[in-house]
User: What shape does this take?
Amino acid sequence: MSEFWLTLVNSFTAAFGEAQALTAWEAVAVLLAVAYLILAMKGNIWCWAAAFISTAIYTVLFWKVSLLMESVLNVYYMAMAIYGYWMWTRGGREHDGVNIVSWRLSTHLKLIGMTTLIAIAVGHFMATQTQAAFPYLDAATTCFAVMTTYLVAKKVLENWIYWFVIDAVSIYLYVSKGLMLTAILFVLYIGMVVFGYVMWRNQMKEQQVSNDIALSSGTM
Assistant: This one.
């Protein structure tokens, strides 16, 4: 009997220690995710380093708790962090990085239509083949997040609008599942997204003024 209780105590101790370790790593990942958003708002290249490390941690954490698709999604985010860093430093015609751009409404409508079709297909699979809650909304937020991350790497101004909608829907999902702290965190994200849009729009206007001055100087 004593061996049973000793084994039980050791099991609880090990589980508690592992939970503490996971919580510590989760806290680091969250802080780096917030750092990524703040740095991205400022157009700072180090945002991609924060994104890479944060998503690498989440990849391992999600795998450990058997959230396999979330883990796979974060592998994609890691790859996009590398791509985003390359685009911001080596992309563009002159290979000196990309400037903030605004895409036409028609381009966004095509993106929205294509992503919506994919989300419906994924949502249907989740609704019929899994026990997922809110399968179509869950699929939509995931698919649009994948697409919007690409827009961030391309420095498309409207990425912030997409994130606003994605985060708002995510808040509804988290509140519905009782994840109130995560919902509060996403409320904070929405506020930061608004500031991000304003900052990028101002930076884009400054870029346009600089380009106009450069063109004028070149023709004189």
The radius of gyration is 21 Å. DSSP finds seven helices and no strands in the chain. Residues 4-19 have pLDDT under 50 and may be disordered. The CA atoms of residues 10 and 189 lie 40 Å apart.
